[in-house]
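Fold Annotation — chain and its backbone
Next Lines — sequence and tokenised fold

***
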Amino acid sequence: MKKARSKPMQVDSPAHQPAGTVSSGRLLVIDADAATATAAQRAVAGTGVLIASAADLAEAAQRPDLGQCDAVLLAARSVTDIEDAAFRLREARAAASLVVLCATGDFQLAVQAMRQGAVDCLTSPLDEADLRVRLLEAVARCQRQRQQQERFDQLKRICKRMNTTRIDVTNQVDSLCNDLVHAYQELTDQISNVTAVTEFAAVIRQELDVEELLRTTLEYLLRKLGPTNAAVFLPSAGDDFTLGAYINYDCSKDTGNFLLEHLADVITPLMLEERELLEFIDNTSLTDWMGDDAAFLVDSHLLTFACQHDGECIAIFMLWRDVNAPFAADHVKMLRSLSAVFTRQLAHVIHVHHRHLPDDEWPPHEADGEGGLAA
């Protein structure tokens, strides 16, 4: 006749618990003999541990609370029983401590139990006091592992949040550093620009002759920009402009004068009303602006600006050199600032020499030689 199995039950905690016991927990007893579950109940009575039982592993595997068990007491009669129990616990992702109950003297079965991860191996007959200590230790062991895993998971979450925060802070610091670098660079450029403007103004302030002003200006630009071609066109009569001064860096002497005279006719009409410095660094944009005459400046980096004073264009500057050795960005910024300084000084020189009349009434400019004043 089949023996009746005990039902899951909870025993009220006693007023006083032995040191080292647990205050709650779940124990699953797997044995067809109800006496095993009864012995386990008596052993953990008063500890708050819930006892449940199953006749075999198949029934135990169907329990929805298998994953919440803290300890499993398995009555094993073969190595297969132990292997199957260990497999089903892993499959249920149960962290329960496995305690194996085997026949007295079955040393081989005990060894296999340890190999399959069992935390303890008991033998019949069971001593209640010993059983109590060992079952509670198995439950406590599982609970410690769960707590450690929870702390580990919590630390992982904290580390993940910290890492996310670290990345955010790093990105913010990088952004701030980039902003500081850009601000420092802008400040440096501004200081450099102010220094150049102040220096240039001091250099040309003493020049009260047009030719000397042009020479000093071109010499200063050579020091700041390095080797470059340059030309300054001055108004002569009507809307015509003539070459006032030039720097011939890489043009042949035979073609240089012809080129500059031709550019005076081509560039000045385009720049008469222009109030901004223009920059061309590719042949396409240069051709769009100059048309076929861009062939004279092919593969060049060109900077040009007009000196506008009281509604009149009193000079036009051109600077160009090979596009493979272009002007730097700070050169362009500096030229924008220097152009205003030069314009004021040139207007002052013209006023000093009573050449403040409209440009169509100015006397013809006396060129120094065929090509104008060469710096």
Q: What stands out?
A: The chain has a mean pLDDT of 83. The radius of gyration is 49 Å. Residues 32 and 364 are 126 Å apart (CA to CA).
